[in-house]
Amino acid sequence: MSFSGKFQLENQEGFVPFMKAIGLPDDLIEKGKDIKSVSEIEQNGDSFKVTITTGSKVMVHSFTIGQECEVETMTGEKVKATVMKEGNKLKTNLKGIESVTELVDDNTIVHTMTLGSIVFKRTSKRVS
Question: Which of 7, 16, 80, 126 is the most exposed place for a label (fewest CB within 10 A)?
Answer without folding.
Answer: 80
